[in-house]
Amino acid sequence: MPNRILITGANRGVGLALVHLLAKTAEHIYAGCRQPDSAEALQQLARSADNVSVIGLDVTDAESLTQASIAVEGGLDLLVCNAGVLNGYSGLRGSENALTSQAMAAFADVLATNIAGPLFSVQAFLPHLRRSDSAGIAIISSHMGSQQHDAANAYAYRSSKAGVNNIMVTLSHELAEEGIAVAAYHPGWVRTDMGGANAHLSVEQSAEALAQRFEQLNMARTGQFINYDGSGLQL
Ligand SMILES: NC(=O)c1ccc[n+]([C@@H]2O[C@H](COP(=O)([O-])OP(=O)(O)OC[C@H]3O[C@@H](n4cnc5c(N)ncnc54)[C@H](OP(=O)(O)O)[C@@H]3O)[C@@H](O)[C@H]2O)c1
């Protein structure tokens, strides 16, 4: 298991469950979140585990990412780009796809958070990843980003996850010569604010499965899109 890990979007949902689980074995976890002062569950965990540091981190804000990178001391073995937003499941008739400036701004925010966010997180933390002998980057994507789908909804979210899968492949090529492995993961359908109450997996189940996948992340798997159960997914 990687020893020094940074997770974005760590104050709730899958991110928080990953911090809980990985803190049991990792040397140090940097848990990034937008509002550290109001991240109560995460702060409580950090008070009881001296290997967890909470850092302010907004993946759409260059200054925030720069400050977060400064806050990290030493190397990182694993960067988990988990932060994400959904903005609804509607089709063309949904208000989120209406021809309004509000809808367009919300669409742009999904793309900025889910596509550009992981890329700029990698930019911010690459100097730390370069200090590890076996660094990896895990991008939490979604099977909804696969081009092999026949659904007719969630335009912003689907396109954002397809976009970040493309970023993952490009990163895997650019970072191959440095031996930094990059993969994208579907965490399952998980009972979080995003996944809703009817989802199949608890956050603990998803985190457990993802942790196993992260352990297997190496240069043989770089560039791949991987399901939480370890099976391969089509980009
Ligand atoms: N739940 C599912 O069924 C499911 C399925 C497939 C993929 N996923 C993916 O799994 C990841 C985690 O999802 P989740 O279900 O845990 O979602 P969630 O419960 O809605 O949590 C999302 C997290 O992302 C953070 N975040 C949003 N925008 C951010 C930004 N600009 N900078 C930093 N953090 C930001 C949120 O912080 P705030 O509290 O500040 O908003 C929150 O911590 C996402 O990438 C999601 O797309 C989830």
Write the layout of secondary structure elements.
Blueprint: E1 4-7, H1 13-22, E2 28-33, H2 40-48, E3 52-56, H3 62-71, E4 78-81, H4 101-129, E5 136-140, H5 155-176, E6 181-186, H6 203-215, E7 225-227
Parallel strand pairs: 1-2, 1-4, 2-3, 4-5, 5-6, 6-7
The structure holds NADP nicotinamide-adenine-dinucleotide phosphate.
Please provide a written account of the structure.
- With 235 residues, the chain is an alpha/beta fold.
- The protein has a single domain (4-227), classed as NAD(P)-binding Rossmann-like Domain (Rossmann fold, 3-Layer(aba) Sandwich).
- The chain contains six helices and seven strands; from the N terminus they run E-H-E-H-E-H-E-H-E-H-E-H-E.
- The chain has helices at 13-22, 40-48, 62-71, 101-129, 155-176, 203-215; strands spanning 4-7, 28-33, 52-56, 78-81, 136-140, 181-186, 225-227.
- A seven-stranded parallel β-sheet has the order 3-2-1-4-5-6-7, sandwiched between helices.
- Helix 1 (13-22) packs across helix 6 (203-215) and helix 3 runs parallel beside helix 4 (101-129).
- The radius of gyration is 17 Å and the shape is globular.
- The site of NADP nicotinamide-adenine-dinucleotide phosphate has 31 residues, from helix 1 and helix 4.
